[in-house]
Write a structure and sequence with these properties.
This protein folds into two domains: 79 residues, no CATH class; 106 residues, 2-Layer Sandwich (Methyltransferase, Cobalt-precorrin-4 Transmethylase, Domain 2), CATH 3.30.950. Helices cover 35% and strands 16% of the residues. It has five helices and five strands.
């Protein structure tokens, strides 16, 4: 059985409430699927990216276990994170000796900017393209569909590449119907 992803309102005024509602839909769908398994059958959830960095799948499955309606064991098989794939494909480290690395979302980048003392920022979940508003002197290593045949890469000074990234991103989203991208911003020294 393949579950379709439960959609969520990414532009909701109350973002936290929208995420809770979306997560509740995922919980119900996952619990129903797990309850439908026969004895001895196995279920697997393929999570794009790294569930240890940004994903609620493990938390949803933990919550289902806590409800005691369906019994199952959870085994997390580590994969390659989007951040690791990005660094590998661009052949750059996520940080340098003595520098900090911040993992954040596009939403937080937009509201909080790059904190003082942070040299490297890995950004996930940036559907609103917050990089377009960044006014720091930074380089960017951007990638979409990392590790797939549709992989896209752009890098360079953000001021010189932001329009190219937006163009490539829009064309890919139009072609595929979806977008999963991440990027590294590094202060220029």
């Amino acid at each position: 059985m393949v579950l379709a992803e439960v959609g969520r309102d990414r532009d909701a005024e109350d973002y936290i409430a929208a995420v809770r509602q979306w997560r509740g839909g995922r919980l119900a769908a996952y619990e129903e699927a797990l309850a439908g398994l026969a004895d001895g059958e196995t279920a697997a959830f393929l999570v794009w990216g790294d569930p240890a960095v940004y994903d609620g799948t493990i938390a949803v499955l933990d919550e289902i276990q806590g409800r005691d309606r369906v019994g199952f064991d959870i085994e997390v098989i580590p994969g390659i994170s989007a951040a690791s794939a990005l660094a590998a494909r661009h052949r750059v480290p996520l940080g340098h000796v003595g520098q900090s690395i911040l993992f954040t979302t596009g939403r937080r980048l937009r509201t909080d900017g790059i904190p003082e003392g942070v040299d490297n920022v890995v950004v996930f979940l940036d559907g609103a393209e917050a990089y377009r508003e960044v006014d720091y002197d930074v380089d960017i290593w951007w990638g979409a569909f990392l590790g797939t045949d549709d992989e896209l890469l752009v890098d360079g000074p953000l001021a010189a590449t932001r329009d190219e990234i937006a163009r490539v991103r829009a064309e890919a989203k139009q072609r595929t119907g979806w977008m999963f991208d991440t990027y590294l911003l590094r202060r220029r020294r």
